[in-house]
Write a structure and sequence with these properties.
The complex is a heterodimer of chains A (354) and B (156). Chain A is mainly beta. In chain A, 6% of the residues lie in helices and 61% in strands. The chains are: A mainly beta (354), B alpha+beta (156).
């Protein structure tokens, strides 16, 4: 995103705060996760793939620490502008614009949005940084490994009720150009990798009621990639699809997710699964999780394969603050495509919203 | 080239089976009866008349009322925990944890309005009087004791 546009997007809502004639109703809200951790067995632990948050055997507070501030300006009853700035320790606390979009409510059920948003691939993709919304320190790392997490485009929301179920449908199109992509550059031994996902077309359907939450997602796009300014991939078709099913009953939560990514031109297919069980006892929520990523072996040698077992505890200090501690044990079974190897991580933190 | 089956089919089947069994185990759960009656309230000065239950739920999820609705904003009454629990159960059809999770996701994922909450009954009455078109809920008994409050309709 051009710098001038970024500055404009940052300045606009701030300016609106001081222009009550233009913006009668501006809200500021935010969230933060302050997380510390260290590797207790192994050399390194990649806890945040997209932003390459990496722990080692020294206590560190940067890889998972995140602060987000959201400004929302209502222009009238149907139109609003929303911007969310996120500062992450893994990216040296620079402010990134994760969301910046104009929302127009067509009627009670339809709304159209244009601008920059999170790419809603996985269940937790579009609230990945919002620690208060889940019991882990971070969503299972084996699942959330993608190099592109945002897009610029347009989407149509349909939100309604169907026989006692809340229904949310989201159809989106867009594109993302990312220069010096954090994850790919790290995996390419710090060579500069530019990545573009273009002609993105995606659809998400969510159904939920008191006890169940079901989600289906599909996205197709084309990929361009340059390494040190040399084009190594162009117009490569890729497809992502997945399903999530969650169950809640009183104190019990059972969360599950199965996803698949295919890039047939390169004979690449990757599957991810996740299963987590949590049980809330007053303010305490102990949980246990298994997650896995496995790439089908290909002629070129790619064989990424890692899985993680986690146990943890969330303690709800009050309605807007939670304390967490978590142990993760990751096994990296790849022969050619090792990420960082086996590792055991102990992490703890505090999440809050304001 | 023949692709390998990367995730064991048995694993997926097993964990989906567990989820399915848990889904079915709640089918016979019956709702609890209660004797506390709840009402939807607003300020005495308000013109708000009866709302559809579906619209009340949408408003308390942070979805703006559309068109000519006189309703401004919802306010959560946390002064009576039992009334709050029954409101979540009978109107929102959500547990407290589920409701909080839904609200927080709506605020930061869809840009929905935050729902204001008040923990004292006196403060709620004062608030409604200074915000005539905001709505809240309380026990029928509490509402009848307060002449400054207008009962819009029974909720449960």
């Amino acid at each position: 995103m051009p710098r001038y546009l970024l500055r404009f997007l940052i300045i606009l809502p701030l300016a609106c705060l001081h222009q009550p004639v233009i913006a009668a109703d501006t809200n500021v809200s935010g969230f933060a996760s302050m997380v510390g951790g260290l590797v207790i067995n192994g050399d390194r632990y990649l806890s945040d793939y997209p932003n390459t948050g990496i722990y080692d055997d020294d206590l560190s507070f940067s890889p998972d620490t995140t602060v987000g501030v959201q400004f929302k300006t209502s222009l009238d009853k149907q139109s609003e502008f929303i911007i969310q700035l996120i500062s992450r320790g893994a990216r040296e606390y620079q402010a990134d614009v994760d969301w910046a979009y104009f929302n127009y409510a067509i009627d009670h059920e339809f709304s159209v949005q244009i601008g920059r948003k999170r790419l809603p691939l996985y269940f937790y993709s579009d609230f990945f940084d919002l620690g208060m919304a889940y019991h882990w320190i971070r969503p299972p790392t084996d699942n959330y490994t993608w190099q592109i997490t945002n897009y610029n485009g347009i989407n149509l929301y349909y939100e309604s009720e169907l026989e006692g179920w809340d229904m949310l449908l989201n159809f989106y199109i867009g594109r993302e150009d990312d220069t010096e992509n954090d994850l790919l550059s790290y995996l390419a031994d710090n060579n500069s990798v530019d990545e573009t996902w273009k002609n993105i077309v995606g659809f998400v359907a969510e159904l939920s009621n008191e006890s169940y939450e079901l989600r289906f997602t599909i996205m197709s796009s084309q990929l361009d990639r340059q390494v040190n300014n040399i084009q190594i991939a162009e117009d490569v078709d890729q497809l992502f699809y997945g399903i999530s099913a969650n169950y809640y009953h009183d104190a019990l939560s059972v969360l599950s997710e199965v996803n698949r990514y295919e890039r047939s031109a390169d004979d690449i297919s990757v599957s991810t699964v996740m299963l987590s069980v949590a049980y809330k006892i007053k303010k305490y929520t102990p949980h246990i999780t298994y997650s896995k990523l496995e790439q089908s072996k290909i002629n070129l040698g790619g064989d990424e394969h890692h899985y993680t077992s986690s146990i943890g505890l969330r303690y709800d200090l009050n309605k807007s603050t939670a304390l967490k501690i978590q142990y993760d044990n990751t096994k990296d079974k790849a022969i050619n495509s090792t990420i960082v190897g086996d590792g055991e991580l102990l992490s703890f933190g505090i999440d809050f919203v304001f | 080239m023949k692709k390998q089956n990367s995730i064991p089919f048995k694993f997926i089947l097993n964990h989906l089976l567990i989820v399915a069994l848990l889904f079915s185990s709640t089918a016979s759960l019956s709702s609890q009866s209660n004797k506390l009656h709840g009402v939807l309230v607003t300020s005495k000065q308000s013109d708000i008349t009866e709302l559809k239950r579906k619209d009340i739920r949408r408003i308390f999820l942070g979805i703006k009322p559309m068109g000519n609705s006189p309703v401004n904003k919802p306010v959560l009454n946390l002064s009576n925990q039992k009334a709050y629990s029954l409101f979540l159960k009978n109107i929102m059809f959500l547990t407290e944890t589920g409701y909080k999770r839904k609200l927080i996701k709506r605020v930061f994922r869809q840009g929905a309005d935050e729902i204001h909450s008040i923990e004292s009954s006196n403060n709620l009455i004062k608030y409604l009087n200074t915000h005539p078109n905001d709505i809240s809920f309380m026990s029928k008994e509490d509402a009848l004791k307060n002449p400054d409050v207008k009962i819009i309709q029974a909720l449960w």
